[in-house]
Write a structure and sequence with these properties.
Layout (H helix, E strand, L loop, with lengths): L1 H11 L5 H114 L1 H4 L3 H4 L6 H11 L7 H9 L7 H10 L7 H14 L3 H12 L11 H16 L5 H17 L8 H16 L4 H9 L12 H43 L4 H28 L13 H5 L24 H8 L4 H4 L3 H5 L1 H29 L1
C-alpha cells in the first residue's frame, strides 16, 4: 500500500523516476549525437557540393579561356594569313606594275632609237646623194626628152604651193616627166611660200632633193627665196609664227640633207636662231618655234638628247646613236644659245608665278571685304592662270629637251594677314563673336560686357511706364538701336584695320 501510495504521491508531485530519467537522458543524448552527426554530414555534403560547383565553374572558365585563346589564335592566324596574302598581292601587283612600266620604258626607248636611227640614215643617204649631185646631173640631151609645155609646167609650180604628203607620189611622177629648166625660180618661190604642216616636210625635202640633183641653179634660187621669207633684221617680228615654226625646221633640214652647203646655210640658220632668241627674252613669244627646232633638229645642231631617253638609256644600258652632222664645237655654240634662252624663260616663269600668287591674294582680300569679284577681274585672273599653266608646261618640255632642271617655284608665304583674310577671323562656332588675334578688341571685361550684353528694357523700366511714358521708352529704344549700330560699325572698321 505504501509503495502504491508513494508512487502515486511521486506521480502527483511529478517526480520522475531516476531510472526513467536516465533512460530518457541516454535517449536524448543519442538523438543529439545523431543530430550532430546528421548536421556534420549535411555540412560536409554542402561543402562537397560547393567544392564541386567551384571546381566545375573553374573548369568551365578554363574551358572558356581555352576556347577564347584558341579563337584568338585562330583570328590571329587568319589575320596573319590575310596580311601575308595582302602583302603578297601588293608585292605581286607592284612587280606586275614595275614589269609593265619596264616594258613600256623599254618599248619607248627602242622606238626612239629606231626612229632616230631611221631618220639619221635617211638624212645621211640624202646628204651623200645631194653632195655628189654636181657630178651626176644630166646633160642637155636629157631635157629634150621631157615636156616643156607652159601649161603643164605652170600647173606643177602651182601644185608646189599646196604640196602635202598625200600628193608625194603624184608630184614625183609629174616632176619626172617635166622640163622645169625655165621655171626653177618659180618652183623655188612656190616651195618657200607654201604653208606646210610638219607632216608634209619629208615630201618637200624629197622634192627639193630631186630638184637640186637635176637643176644646177635650184639651190641658189631656193636660198634667195628663203632669205626673203625668214626674219632678216633685229627689229623684225615674225607675222605668221605658225608658218615660221615649220619653215625654220624645213630650212634646217635642207642644210642637213645637203641641198645647201654648210657654208651657205649655217650662217643663215645661226642668224635666225639669234634673232628669235635674242629679241624674245622677256615675253617669249617665239617659244613654240624654238621648242619645235629643239625637238626636230636639236640633235643635229646642238647635240641634244632628251633627259627622259638619256636616263632610260643609262638604266637599260642601251646605246643611243648620236648625230655626227656637225662637230661638237659648233654644237656647243648652238646649245649655249638655247640655254641662255631657257634661263630667261625660267626667270619669266618665276616672275609670272609671283604675279599670279599676288593676284590670288588680292582676290581673297576683295572676297573678304566685298563678298564677290567683278566679272572683269575674274576674266583677268582666268587668263593669267591659263597663260601661266601653258608657259609652265612649255618650260617643262624645254627643260627635258635641254636636259636641264625645272625652275623651283617659291611656295606661298603664310603670315598673319593671310590667316586673317579668311572667314575664320571670328570663330563662327562660338556663341559670341570673339576675336582670336593677339590684340584685344576691348580694353577690359567691363567694356566688353557693356558692348556685348545689351540690357532688356522690360527688365530695367517699370511696366507702368510703358503705358504712361511712351515717349521716354521710344527715346531709350532709339538710343539702344543707335548703340547697336555703332557696335556693328566698330566691328567693321576694326576688321578693316586688321586686314
Amino acid at each position: 500500500m505504501r509503495n502504491d501510495g508513494g508512487a502515486e504521491l511521486m506521480s502527483l508531485l511529478k517526480i520522475k523516476d531516476p531510472k526513467e530519467t536516465k533512460e530518457k537522458s541516454k535517449s536524448k543524448s543519442k538523438d543529439k549525437d545523431s543530430k550532430t552527426k546528421g548536421g556534420k554530414a549535411t555540412d560536409l555534403e554542402a561543402k562537397w557540393q560547393k567544392e564541386e560547383e567551384e571546381k566545375r565553374r573553374k573548369e568551365e572558365e578554363e574551358k572558356r579561356a581555352e576556347e577564347e585563346k584558341i579563337r584568338k589564335e585562330e583570328e590571329e592566324r587568319l589575320a596573319e594569313e590575310k596580311r601575308i596574302k595582302d602583302e603578297e598581292d601588293k608585292k605581286r601587283r607592284e612587280e606586275e606594275e614595275a614589269q609593265r612600266l619596264k616594258e613600256e620604258e623599254m618599248r619607248a626607248l627602242a622606238d626612239f632609237i629606231d626612229e632616230n636611227r631611221e631618220k639619221t640614215d635617211m638624212k645621211n643617204a640624202l646628204r651623200e646623194t645631194n653632195m655628189a649631185a654636181a657630178e651626176h646631173r644630166p646633160d642637155d640631151s636629157f631635157f629634150t626628152k621631157l615636156d616643156s609645155s607652159l601649161k603643164k609646167n605652170t600647173a606643177f609650180v602651182k601644185k608646189l604651193k599646196n604640196l602635202t604628203e598625200l600628193q608625194k607620189e603624184a608630184l614625183i611622177k609629174d616632176f619626172n616627166g617635166l622640163n622645169l629648166s625655165k621655171y626653177v625660180g618659180e618652183a623655188a618661190q612656190s616651195i618657200t611660200e607654201a604653208k606646210l604642216k610638219m607632216s608634209d616636210i619629208n615630201c618637200a625635202l624629197h622634192l627639193c632633193s630631186l630638184m637640186h640633183q637635176r637643176y644646177t641653179d635650184f639651190s641658189t634660187a631656193l636660198l634667195e627665196n628663203w632669205q626673203k621669207v625668214l626674219v632678216s633684221k633685229k627689229d623684225d617680228k615674225p607675222i605668221n609664227l605658225s608658218k615660221l615654226r615649220v619653215d625654220l625646221r624645213f630650212f634646217a633640214e635642207l642644210i642637213a640633207i645637203g641641198v645647201f652647203t654648210d657654208k651657205e646655210g649655217l650662217p643663215v640658220l645661226a642668224s635666225q636662231l639669234t634673232l628669235l632668241t635674242g629679241n624674245d627674252k622677256e615675253d617669249h613669244n617665239n617659244l613654240a618655234i624654238i621648242l619645235s627646232f629643239c625637238k626636230h633638229c636639236g640633235e643635229d645642231y646642238a647635240g641634244l638628247l632628251p633627259r627622259k631617253f638619256r636616263v632610260l638609256g643609262e638604266k637599260y644600258e642601251r646605246e643611243i646613236p648620236i648625230s655626227s652632222f656637225l662637230p661638237k664645237a659648233r654644237q656647243a655654240a648652238c646649245r649655249n644659245l638655247l640655254k641662255e634662252y631657257y634661263s630667261s624663260l625660267c626667270r619669266h616663269v618665276i616672275k609670272d608665278h609671283k604675279e599670279l600668287k599676288a593676284m590670288e591674294k588680292q582676290n581673297r582680300k576683295i572676297l573678304q571685304t566685298k563678298g564677290e569679284l567683278s566679272g572683269e577681274r575674274k576674266e583677268k585672273y582666268e587668263g593669267m592662270h591659263s597663260s601661266f599653266q601653258k608657259l609652265l608646261a612649255n618650260t617643262c618640255i624645254f627643260a627635258d629637251l635641254l636636259d636641264e632642271d625645272i625652275p623651283e617655284l617659291p611656295e606661298d608665304e603664310k603670315n598673319l594677314d593671310d590667316e586673317l583674310m579668311g572667314l575664320d577671323v571670328f570663330n563662327p562656332l562660338k556663341a559670341e563673336y570673339t576675336y582670336e588675334g593677339d590684340s584685344s578688341l576691348f580694353e577690359d571685361d567691363d567694356t566688353r560686357m557693356f558692348y556685348e550684353n545689351l540690357p532688356d528694357l522690360k527688365s530695367v523700366i517699370p511696366g507702368i511706364l510703358y503705358k504712361v511714358g511712351g515717349s521716354e521708352i521710344k527715346l531709350y529704344t532709339m538710343c539702344m538701336s543707335y548703340r547697336v549700330k555703332m557696335i556693328r560699325i566698330s566691328f567693321f572698321f576694326l576688321t578693316m584695320s586688321i586686314l
